[in-house]
Protein kinase domain-containing protein (Rehmannia glutinosa), 449 residues
Amino acid sequence: MEDRRAKQIAFSIILLLIILIITSRLSLKLSETFFLICGAAIAAIFAVVTVVVIRIRFNARRKQLEIQLDSQGRELRIEYRFLRKVAGVPTKFRHRELEEATDGFKSLIGRGGSGTVYRGILSDGTAVAVKRIDGEERGEKAFKSEVAAIASVQHVNLVRLLGYCIASTGPRFLVYEFIHNGSLDNWIFVKSSNCGGGGRRNGCLSWDSRCRVAIDVAKALSYLHHDCRSCILHLDVKPENILIDENYRALVSDFGLSKLKGRDESRVVTTIRGTRGYLAPEWILENGVSEKCDVYSYGMVLLEIIGGRRNICKMSKKKFEFFPRIVVEKLRDGKLMEIVDERLVMGGGIDERVLQRMVVVALWCIQEKAKLRPTMAEVVEMLEGRVVIEDPPNTQMLVVDLLSIGDDDDDDENGNRKRGARPRFVEMDGDNPSTSAGYSFAFSTLSGR
Ligand SMILES: Nc1ncnc2c1ncn2[C@@H]1O[C@H](COP(=O)(O)OP(=O)(O)OP(=O)(O)O)[C@@H](O)[C@H]1O
């Protein structure tokens, strides 16, 4: 466009100069002035032609460079996007992109303590779960913990954080890969029972799948504790935070409560949060956490996987049943099959040696004294049958789970624990727990999530 305009101007100037030569030839004949004007006009024509040619060439070169840079930029952008994907670096999404992906946040998958999860499809066809983190300060904390903990880690048994979205105002979002079979609680608990969970039901996970899931979760936690630059404490291990993929393999999710612990630190001080029924006793007593808190929660989950029921089960208004205690008794009496999820016993195919191994590992994990518990790396070894496992010490289970039994208001419609509910410190006496006044000092250290 610019070139055409320059050519038009040059053409007009040259035309004017030629007209000038012709008119001066007619009026001045072949005088000296005519030759002067003629020489100057020819020089001007030459200069105009030179300028136009240089300009056209310059523009052509500039255009070529622009095209070249543009294509290099595009290639770099593609390469960068690819490298981010390969390295697992989360992408920053715009709110509009997430709105489009979730069709206006319409298809709700679930609700947790820190936010609401929606199903979505990204523009490239990737199925995602978009978690909207609610609450100002708490939301900010959960968001930062989650991104800091899993943005840099990669493991087949950890759910992948694909991206995030932070707007200057409004909630924050985390975008995960979508895991098709939902959370483990839907696959192990019986809905109708008091000791089951509420919500969506999927089915009953087979014995073999349960064994695989147990090892998958143990491997994920072992990786977080031992194989990352800092030790990552999950601090909220429970069936709701274990997702099951289409091959019935487990992926640990929800890092909203996680903490990083330096390799030279023995424990990290943090306020008491998490979910009743899975909290290690020392967290409440000493107000510090270590990887042994995850080991405790894992042991509790392992028992629930085997039994297909919650560990703490409300039988009536004042009566509770503590499953780990029953497990200890049945192990002692050699009647372990009686603690297995009835639906699996009916189907058969349970290897009693594997069952015994899993139970013993779980009982080691829930030892009240943290230092007696194995590491998650040892748990993997034990579950895979690579080491001989000694019998766990006889534990009194006096302080069962400081947050496990609360007010009636703290339980949901099925009698199960709600997350973040006010805790009550309990002393177990058979299956009839009572609040222990002697331990009431612990209340002052408690804070809901
Ligand atoms: N990546 C995912 N793919 C499929 N479903 C998911 C995914 N992430 C979460 N969900 C579903 O959404 C539910 C809510 O998840 P979320 O992590 O918010 O809460 P939670 O674990 O139940 O509770 P809390 O946040 O209090 O621990 C889960 O129980 C699970 O069923």
